[in-house]
Every structure is written in structure tokens, then in C-alpha cells.
């Protein structure tokens, strides 16, 4: 299996760096091929601008409309070289590991900028169904369908505080914008995340447990049962993209988008 490992931590000697090394070695030992996007080491530019699309400023009223500019640049082959290089890695990959520390309830800005710049319209979204004109392929369908995605996250919080009744919110819901709103939205098959809690004070025994868990999860990335998100075009949602009332009747919140 071809695995792209996207790593977003500024210090390679960190806990994240050590865990990344453990996972990459495990993949190699199991016979998988791995490519890397170490965003801080690459000096990845996280902000979108005209240079991404090969466009130059025109008259003062020539606004940059990112969605249309990105689609046009993807179609015409004028995306900047660093974006094209990341898309080529994604095209090559059967699975993607996304590793980062949880900062302020989300991913580091550099990783958010990787998605903003690489997942352009016409490549990762805005793809129409040729068999059903006007219907968009998303939430389980799209050009990235068939690729598996595994999120590996470290959190300073103890595990109970990121549980279903924890003050920090349930981790699956904290990560919902990434797992469902980005990865599943673009068609990727999303696996249950790997979480390492209490990351700022992890004793050696718990580090070994975390490393063993990561090795097991990355080497079984092709066999792990994915999160059971509902397909947009599978009949569960009405024309306004609202869950049909006969499904999870009376329930609200993020949990209704998981099929039983």
C-alpha cells in the first residue's frame, strides 16, 4: 500500500516526531511504501493568494474569487509547483496519515493551510456526477474516494476530559470538521482516529503503549473498519441535505450523521 504521511509539528524531537518515526518504521517493516509531507520542515506556505493560481493582479476591480480561480488553475495546469507536488503525492497514495497536535480545538494553522491550498475546487470538491447533472459528488463520493484517511492526534488533556461527558468535548466531535467536513466530504474513507492523551507529561510506559497502538493502527490501515458516516447521495438526506425524519427520529446533533 502507498501511504502519504502528512506531519504538522515544528519539532522533530517532540513526542509527535518520535511517534511519527515509530509509525514510518512499522510501515516499512510491513512492506508498505511511504512518502512524506513534513510541513514545517518544508517551509510550507499556509496562505492562499494569487500566486497559487498563476494569476497576476489586474485592474483594481479585478477581485480574486478563490473558488473559480482554483478551479481554473487546476483545469489549466497553472497551480503553483508546491501545490501540484502535494496533489501528485495524493494521487499516488492509497492512504493518508494526518498527524498533528491538537491546538485550540483544531489542527495547527500550517496544516489547515495545506488543505486550503491543496484541496482546490475541481480536484477535491466541486466535482459533479456525470450520470446526474447538477448533483455534486461529496460526503463519501468524489475524486478522492477510495483513499483511506487516518488522523493521529496528540492532546494535552487527559482522556476522560475529551470523552462523551468531558469538559473539553468528545474528541470525535472536536475532530468532526476534519473527519466529516473535510475528509469524508471529499470522498475519503475515514478511519477512527488514533489519540494520545496527556501528551505534555507522558511517562515512558504510556509512551510505549502509544507507540504500540500507532504501529498496530498504521499497519492495519487497509483493514480497519471505517467510521460509518452517511453518504450524501445514498438516500438518507432530502433535497435540502437534511436527514430524513424517519432516520434517527427525534435526535439532533453531530451523531445523527453516523449510520447505525
TrEMBL record:
GO MF annotation list: oxidoreductase activity
Name the record gives this protein: NAD(P)H-dependent oxidoreductase
Gene3D superfamilies (alphabetical): 3.40.50.360
Similarity comment: Belongs to the NAD(P)H dehydrogenase (quinone) family.
Organism expressing this protein natively: Streptomyces desertarenae
Upper lineage: Bacteria, Bacillati, Actinomycetota, Actinomycetes, Kitasatosporales
EC number: 1.-.-.-, 1.6.99.-
Segments forming domain Flavodoxin-like fold: 1-212
UniProt-listed InterPro entries: Flavodoxin_fold, Flavoprotein-like_sf, NAD(P)H_dehydrogenase_qn
The entry's keywords: Oxidoreductase
Amino acid at each position: 500500500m502507498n501511504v502519504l504521511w502528512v506531519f504538522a509539528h515544528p519539532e522533530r524531537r517532540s513526542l509527535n516526531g518520535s511517534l511519527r518515526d515509530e509509525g514510518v518504521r512499522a510501515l516499512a517493516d510491513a512492506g508498505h511504501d511511504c512518502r512524506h509531507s513534513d510541513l514545517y520542515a518544508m517551509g510550507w506556505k499556509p496562505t492562499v493568494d494569487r500566486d497559487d493560481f498563476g494569476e497576476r493582479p489586474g485592474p483594481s476591480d479585478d477581485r480574486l474569487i478563490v473558488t473559480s480561480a482554483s478551479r481554473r488553475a487546476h483545469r489549466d495546469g497553472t497551480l503553483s509547483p508546491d501545490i501540484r507536488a502535494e496533489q501528485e503525492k495524493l494521487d499516488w497514495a492509497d492512504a493518508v496519515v494526518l498527524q498533528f497536535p491538537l491546538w485550540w480545538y483544531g489542527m495547527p494553522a500550517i496544516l489547515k493551510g495545506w488543505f486550503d491550498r491543496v484541496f482546490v475546487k475541481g480536484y477535491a470538491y466541486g466535482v459533479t456526477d456525470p450520470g446526474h447533472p447538477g448533483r455534486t459528488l461529496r460526503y463519501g463520493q468524489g475524486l478522492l474516494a477510495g483513499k483511506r484517511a487516518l488522523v493521529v492526534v496528540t492532546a494535552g488533556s487527559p482522556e476522560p476530559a475529551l470523552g462523551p461527558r468531558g469538559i473539553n468535548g468528545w474528541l470525535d466531535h472536536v475532530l468532526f470538521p476534519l473527519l466529516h467536513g473535510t475528509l469524508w466530504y471529499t470522498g475519503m474513507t475515514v478511519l477512527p482516529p488514533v489519540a494520545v492523551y496527556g501528551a505534555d507529561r507522558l511517562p515512558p510506559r504510556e509512551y510505549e503503549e502509544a507507540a504500540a497502538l500507532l504501529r498496530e493502527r498504521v499497519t492495519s490501515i487497509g483493514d480497519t473498519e471505517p467510521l460509518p458516516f452517511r453518504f450524501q447521495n445514498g438516500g438518507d438526506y432530502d433535497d435540502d441535505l437534511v436527514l430524513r425524519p424517519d432516520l434517527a427520529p427525534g435526535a439532533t446533533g453531530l451523531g445523527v450523521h453516523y449510520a447505525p
